[in-house]
């Protein structure tokens, strides 16, 4: 099997003709997948070989041409710790990720559905719409899924498959061509420590790494999740079946380990650098899995549809322990930690919780109950900034504590 995978990698061809502004080729070693899987991936990302891939470096315009300027209002205080940020977006926009540059901790970008891209220079107090003109050339309404910076070098991925790259803190963006045969849609991008280095992950479990500014990519796994499940279907993983190898949520820790929830929420998978394949695991209860991630001490946290929170060791195979949290039946959609003791959880119907004992017990932020939105993403920056993303364009910003 490894010899077959190695042969596939060795014979990898460039995914697209060239990224014209740099005049360079981008080669990606594909993971092993069936012809049916490649066809499905191509159908999910149509038209990526057309004229938009021949666009030059993309200028990030300060004009809000594609984002109509909406009336500005003052941010609204929610509690002593959180404020609701007024955003220049329509209510149906789904906010998806935030990242700040390494050179200026107050300079960052917020992105989401309908090609939403907002920029801040004051730590997220105010945001202005930005547009990438060439992202509109194919007529797609891209969903920008993930953004990551190392210094002034940044990356954005989205669906249908799109990859943007900047080296000047987002003043200009270059579009990097991606193949219609890319296994799955890019859902996570991580800027690595060295210049020109990044790691891109798709919802079918493909992981690609570049060290030269996306001129070439190397596959970190040798087969899609579909292929892995088909190969281990008799290994005792409850709920696993043929052709359901996609993820609803993927999380990565600083060491490069991954944990991912299956699209049906009935099992989860882990991967660590150096492993050839993803490893499937059984869930701790019959309730559907919502999301998973990592604690500061490298444990895995896990949330279920009924609002339960569990912890397990980083292997995913140890004994699960359950945290004390009165979720009132609402699903917990994300958990993030600021340090070893302080952390936050968010979920359905304005659910917002805080822990000060490393996640063993949680206290509800009752002021958030008035929010008519599901809160589903937490982001905390090394500089101490904190945000909660919700539907209907809701953004919470952590303010200085009284």
TrEMBL record:
Cellular component GO terms, alphabetical: chloroplast; photosystem II
Alphabetical list of Pfam families matching this protein: PSII_BNR (PF14870)
UniProt keyword terms in alphabetical order: Chloroplast, Photosynthesis, Photosystem II, Plastid
The keyword Chloroplast appears for this protein: yes
GO terms, biological process: photosynthesis
InterPro entries in UniProt: PSII_CF48-like_dom, TAT_signal, WD40/YVTN_repeat-like_dom_sf, Ycf48/Hcf136
Domain Photosynthesis system II assembly factor Ycf48/Hcf136-like span(s) in chain numbering: 77-397
Cellular compartments annotated: Plastid, Chloroplast
Top-level division of the source organism's lineage: Eukaryota
Family, similarity comment: Belongs to the Ycf48 family.
Role played: Essential for photosystem II (PSII) biogenesis.
Protein name: Photosystem II stability/assembly factor
Source species of the chain: Chlorella sorokiniana
